[in-house]
Amino acid sequence: MPVATPDQYAEMFDRAKAGGFAYPAFNVSSSQTINAVLQGLTEAGSDGILQVTTGGADYFAGHTVKGRATGAIAMAQYVREVAKNYPITVGVHTDHCPKDALPGFVLPLVEASEERVKAGGEPLFNSHMWDGSAVPLDENIEIAADLLPRMKNIHAILEIEVGVVGGEEDGVAHEGSNDALYTTVADVTKAVEVLGLGDKGRYIAALTFGNVHGVYKPGGVKLRPELLGEIQEGIAAHFGTGAKPLDLVFHGGSGSTDEEIALAVANGVVKMNIDTDTQYAFTRSIAGYMFSNYDGVLKIDGEVGNKKQYDPRAWGKVAESAMAARVAEATRQLGSFGKSQS
């Protein structure tokens, strides 16, 4: 199936919220990882989202050049072409974009989509994240308010972050007090007062409840997914809406228990980012392959090795299938398994 149209993408989030599940959003950095996500989603019968960070876009462009907007465009175009061969629907998203990266990452991509839409086409990306967690809240909201109408005009969705996800992802690091890792009702109220609840353009919100990017053992981070429910109730009461007025995003979920994930989804999470676990699944399988085929991938003791084993396609297929299995596992955790709308 082709990449989701703007209407289909919006419907994905509506279906998730109504059905009590969430879509996994996988960070990709190569054609191999894109293929692995598409394989895994297909095997799970689930729709999903492929997303790229600033660092991932840099890598797509070629690690010796500076061209992250070019890399992101290449990623989106590749997904749009190869996704036609898979019986699922996927969205394409740009992940964390801090303030200093806006001019070289998200803004050129929005401009590219504006040209496509002006010519009668669809936006290049279905959604973009503005990560204002490192700037004061008022500035975070002000920049989001500037971006939102442009997103609305290209029929794309904005993702914002209110609060701070700890740890580091692709060079975007946050250090500070533990209090900053928990979003407050007051913070979200201030954001909604400016951004509205969909009338000014659709957005999804990454609220923080102790989340940390990167690797940690179960129990190593104090997650409070019940906080999301408290914020939903506070916003509903303040603005007089129905239950769970916010569409939420779960960042920094590696090491989370199934129970923590389920509670977050029950409280309105419709998108969960996954990166660390799929990176490990991909690379661990390559390490295993190399150890198991040591004398085939290396020319040792005057031998010539085994071309069929050191052909990058041989171990690449192993890596893609291993990552695909982790992709499918994520759909089971989030409840999207078997729910493709295609």
UniProtKB/TrEMBL annotation:
Protein EC: 4.1.2.13
UniProt: dihydroxyacetone phosphate binding residues: 214, 252-254, 273-276
Reaction(s) catalysed by this chain's protein: beta-D-fructose 1,6-bisphosphate = D-glyceraldehyde 3-phosphate + dihydroxyacetone phosphate
Residues reported to bind Zn(2+) 2: 131, 161
Active-site residues, Swiss-Prot/TrEMBL: 95
GO CC terms of this entry: cytosol
GO BP, sorted A to Z: glycolytic process
Known cofactor(s): Zn(2+)
Gene3D superfamilies per UniProt: Aldolase class I
GO molecular function, one term: fructose-bisphosphate aldolase activity
Domain of life where this protein originates: Bacteria
Cofactor binding: number and manner: Binds 2 Zn(2+) ions per subunit. One is catalytic and the other provides a structural contribution.
Binding site for Zn(2+) 1: 96, 213, 251
SUPFAM superfamilies: Aldolase
Alphabetized UniProt keyword annotations: Glycolysis, Lyase, Metal-binding, Zinc
EC class of the enzyme, as a word: lyase
Biological or metabolic pathway of the protein: Carbohydrate degradation; glycolysis; D-glyceraldehyde 3-phosphate and glycerone phosphate from D-glucose: step 4/4
Keyword Zinc: yes
Similarity-based family: Belongs to the class II fructose-bisphosphate aldolase family.
PANTHER family assigned to the protein according to its UniProt record, in alphabetical order: FRUCTOSE-BISPHOSPHATE ALDOLASE (PTHR30559:SF0), FRUCTOSE-BISPHOSPHATE ALDOLASE CLASS 2 (PTHR30559)
Role description: Catalyzes the aldol condensation of dihydroxyacetone phosphate (DHAP or glycerone-phosphate) with glyceraldehyde 3-phosphate (G3P) to form fructose 1,6-bisphosphate (FBP) in gluconeogenesis and the reverse reaction in glycolysis.
Designated name of the protein: Fructose-bisphosphate aldolase
Organism (species): Microbacterium oryzae
Lineage of origin: Bacteria, Bacillati, Actinomycetota, Actinomycetes, Micrococcales
